[in-house]
Amino acid sequence: MTFTSPLPDVEIPDVPLVSYVLARAAELGDEPALVDGPTGRVLTYAELDRQVRSFAGGLRARGFGKGDVLALMAPNLPEYAVVFLGVAASGGTITTVNPTYTAHEVRHQLEDSGATILVTVPMFLEVATEAAEGTAVGDRFVLGEAVDGAASVADLFGEPLEAPVPVDGGDVVVLPYSSGTTGLSKGVMLTNRNLVANIAQVIGASGIDGSDTVMAVLPFFHIYGMQVLMNTGLRAGATVVTMPRFDLEQFLQLHQEHGVTRSFVAPPIVVALAKHPVVDDYDLSHVDQVFSGAAPLSAELAEEAAARLGCEVVQGYGMTEMSPVSHLTPVGGYKPGSVGVTAPNTETRIVDPSTGADLGVDEDGEVWVRGPQVMLGYLNNAQATAETLDDDGWLHTGDIGHIDADGHLFVVDRLKELIKYKGFQVPPAELEALLLTHPAVADAAVIGRPDDEAGEVPVAYVVLKPGQDATAEDLMAFVAAEVAHYKQLRAVHLVDEIPKSASGKILRRILRDRDAAGG
């Protein structure tokens, strides 16, 4: 049984990403496209268009184009959009890097993506420089003034292109990195058509338009911020207010100051909006909708925040491999606990993971999705691609859920083992492999512990080698030195053995039950 969208299909034009995103730039002219929240600095649509074409022209003059990759490792700034769209306009590919990654994690992405240029900010230059050693990266640039070890990104600008370099809809334009449904970080190949399609799908269902002011605190390196906030906001002609990092009072102040109408957030921010007393000190009356994604949000919390703010608090669903939105809640379409309905031009199946049989209304199974937003595949990883995408184009999400009689999707569990910490993916296998490199560790298993603020936090069960006496604190510090903050262990339990099946598979459900009972 295939579930189609209750929403009408939208037109998906066969145009390059930049032509679609900046289609209204000339018309909007001096209207603000992006505002740097902390400083109030404004980049108009006309300035954005000119800078994107100039950046693309400079890259082309350096010989950068189709098949070349630029890595961008920066917080949310108006210039993020200039670099991102400039690379796309040059015909090249951009890989967006999490700035909180360690040098080891950044190096993996640089090597796998084949990036030759790295753009960052001075704060992250030390890590970026260490990561780039031994990779194909030949040049490093920083946003702003030149510093020791890196030229200014201004040096990359050149004669503006008249129009974006012609590309095919199937050309890869962005390579965000995701753990997917299993395993270590992989490059997700998203094409011009993937991104254009998902922008059209989101705008068609959400009703976002040029009258909106969008809050962009969720990072642009993450597919949610990149697509739903930056690219979709600009295509709609909205004003996008950027924040380089989350600070609750500044977040609220910017809502009040700019009259934010659409606030795209993750569940931890909804917790603050629902419960923190400082929220009452700010005027949030312009907010029409709070849209939560990247991790599950309980119906109770959504309704508590909605009652306090006097607006809808709704959810969507997706993943990097779907550009990212496959399900979303249209304005006025809220249903408690639902992540929304199937997006336009998209199909959903609910499949019994044991038999492969299709399931019907209100029956729980693995969520499969097919549509024009589904990725081309994983870079350099045919096996992982085959495990996630079948020959008929269905993407197996690894999530368990059901669709009700009204077409709403309810996600109830995860078939996959990934831990989701504040919307970020934490693969247990990566942390287990790291723990096993510690000289005192004989065996290890990592699970996600439910957490009201973060969604889940990583917790490890560790067996020590005979005669070793490493402490839980020792092991937590060992992991913390090697991974980004969101992957760090929040607890370590020292045990005699890890429960496993006859085939050697870790029985994580036993560990989750044990953890819920107190370890």
Kindly describe this structure.
- With 519 residues, the protein is of the alpha/beta class.
- Helices cover 29% and strands 25% of the residues.
- Strand 26 and strand 27 form a beta hairpin.
- The longest helix has 17 residues, at 45-61.
- The protein starts with a strand and ends with a helix.
* Overall residue-averaged pLDDT value: 93
CATH topology of the domain at 419-516: GMP Synthetase, Chain A, domain 3
Q: Quick one: CATH superfamily of the domain at 419-516? A: ANL, C-terminal domain
Unreliable segments (pLDDT under 50, ≥5 consecutive)? Answer: none
Q: Which overall shape is indicated by the principal axes computed on the Cα atoms?
A: globular
The biggest sheet amounts to: 9 strands, mixed
CATH architecture of the domain at 419-516: 2-Layer Sandwich
- Rg, please? 23 Å
CATH class of the domain at 419-516: Alpha Beta
- Across the major sheet, the strand order is 3-2-13-12-14-15-16-17-18
Strand content: 15-25%
Per DSSP E runs of 2 or more residues, the count of β-strands stands at 28
Q: Treating each run of at least 4 consecutive H or I residues as one helix, how many helices?
A: 15
Compute the separation of the termini in Å. Answer: 42 Å
Structural class label: alpha/beta
* Residue share in helix: 25-40%
